[in-house]
Design a protein that fits this description.
Oligomer: single chain
Largest sheet: 4 strands, antiparallel
Order of helices and strands: EHHHEHEEEHHHEHEEE
Distance between the termini: 33 Å
Number of strands: 9
CATH topology: Cyclic Phosphodiesterase, Chain: A
Radius of gyration: 17 Å
Strand content: 15-25%
CATH architecture: Alpha-Beta Complex
Number of helices: 8
Number of domains: 1
Structural class: alpha+beta
Helix content: 25-40%
Strand order of the largest sheet: 2-1-8-9
Length: 231
């Protein structure tokens, strides 16, 4: 089993519903969702382009997936997350569409420093729950040709893209060839047109669980950030 600390919108949030229809799966129920029609992209191709993010569900990574350390339990993690969330308030989050290398994602518009600081606190606070990476896990990550700094973060924190290398993003596609990027971006902008550039909040900490490597990630719990005046 692996767990992850993510941000995701509430199940009933219209953006969460739109994302589920784009990705083709609801991470709260685990059930398939009929994918929306995307002009310029066949249903078969849309299913291919969204296959990788569909496994993880609609989310933004705060602390990347990890196995629980020996002696640690999921209920303990959930209690720690509740304690953490009780000391934090919601943060402003306005999302826009960007292509990040080969894939598309929704990313924060404007200054992300408060969100980056929040994510760094999550990485540190829940590190005692993370089991060390195995050699195969390290080797798999290193196939991405990590920089020395990324490699150091991988070994120290279990993920290469933390702290100054972190960028919050909510992934919408896998790798999109350059020749398909224009049609994909147009389809995404149409699908998410009601949400791009609209003020919102990062208002919860979510625990996602992957029962085993062959299974998709599911929302185990979503814990609101409830401290008054913390933002």
């Amino acid at each position: 089993m692996r767990v992850a600390l993510y941000y995701t919108h509430a199940a009933e949030n219209p953006l969460a519903r739109a994302a589920a229809h784009w990705l083709g799966r609801d991470a709260f129920t685990g059930e398939p969702v009929r994918q929306s029609v995307a002009d310029g992209i066949s249903p078969e191709r849309l299913a291919e382009l969204t296959a990788d993010p569909r496994r993880y569900g609609w989310h933004a990574t705060l602390k990347a997936p990890f196995r629980l350390a020996e002696g640690r339990t999921l209920p303990e993690l959930e209690q720690a997350a509740a304690d953490f969330a009780a000391q934090r308030g919601p943060l402003p989050l306005t999302l826009d569409l960007q292509r990040l290398g080969p894939f598309f994602a929704l990313t924060p518009a404007g200054d992300p420093s408060a969100i980056n600081d929040f994510a760094a606190d999550v990485v540190r606070a829940f590190e005692p729950f993370r089991a060390p990476l195995t050699e195969p896990e390290i080797a798999r990550r290193r196939r991405s040709h990590l920089s020395p700094e990324q490699d150091r973060y991988l070994l120290d924190w279990g993920y290469p893209y933390v702290f100054d290398l972190f960028r919050l993003h909510m992934t919408l596609t896998g790798s999109v060839p350059d020749g398909e990027a224009g049609a994909t971006e147009r389809a995404l902008r149409r699908h998410f047109r009601d949400f791009l550039g609209k003020p919102g909040q990062l208002d919860a900490l979510a625990i996602f669980v992957q029962p085993d490597a062959s299974r998709d990630f599911l929302v185990h719990s979503r814990i609101p950030l409830i401290a008054h005046g913390a933002a």
